[in-house]
Amino acid sequence: MTGVFALTVRGLEAVCAGEMARLGLTVGEIGYRRVHAQAKGDLRPLLALSTADDIFLEVSRWSAIGHTKTALDTLRELAGQLDLYSALAVCSQLRPIDRRLLFSVTANFVGKRNYSSDEIKMALAAGIEASTGWTYSPDDSVAVLNVRLFIEHDEALVGVRLGATPLHRRSYKQEQRPGSLKPPVAAALLELLHLDGNAAFLDPCCGAGTILIEAARRGATAQGGDLYLDAVASALANGEHAGVTLAVEQWDARSLPLGNGSVDAIASNLPWDRQVAIDGDEATLYAELCAEMERVLRPAGRIALLTNQPDLVQFERLVCREQIEISLFGQRPTIGVYG
Predict the structure, then answer these.
(1) Ordered domains of the chain (ranges, CATH)
(2) Distance between terminal CA atoms of the chain?
């Protein structure tokens, strides 16, 4: 068994844990933004985790990490004792490893400290360079190996990224829009819908198409639209980069050109003022959007919506089955699931 941990958006830890369990992992501890698990056999499926920001081999855990600058000496010493060669051997089974090994360091901590993330990075880099002879690079995009340190209170968790790049950095995401959704959050909406490959799926406010693409990658028939023509172009371009087929058109989501009960599932990142400017009254807009979504949804269908105004989401027959507050764009919007 191989110990791993996934990092995800705050609030989506349980959703990520559910996806990991479906992939056959034995899920253990669930903490702030992370899910720990034991993996058996081939680790390649972990690189397809959709709701995780990233996935790491668990290398070590340290305790008694203080809040003063003297902790930097401790971190440097502990870094020099890490067994990174075993992690390197695992990674080399999944992807090519350049012999001229460049490594990067990512560091995060919870709570106040008398040292910065940059100082932590330099302390770890110094210890690793001294013990391995590898070369530190501050640019993660050119590094072969990423060492991740997460400090919570006086405990530290150390991991090595399993893949070459972070999981949230989807290669298809070439075109961006204001308020464009992170792919793992888009995937989480679909996880909460239990979307399957036979579904007729709709995103009525599709923006750059992230939710549509994640749905299409799961095998669903993905249809969507947006009020703005440049958003439609962005969604189609990103779909082409992803190698999936999308049906996207310009429309007003308050008057969808779709038949009653014509879709199995709906997910959307609804417009909210801190992302995209809204013309007119927000309550009226939401009421009209909800009425149209309910009209085109089949009787047993479900809807998952992300918004910072959950109280404005009201349906005639659908009820809220679940609400999850997450951290996104420095705000705390809510995912609501209705059915």
Answers:
(1) 2-161 (3.30.2130.30), 183-338 (3.40.50.150)
(2) 39
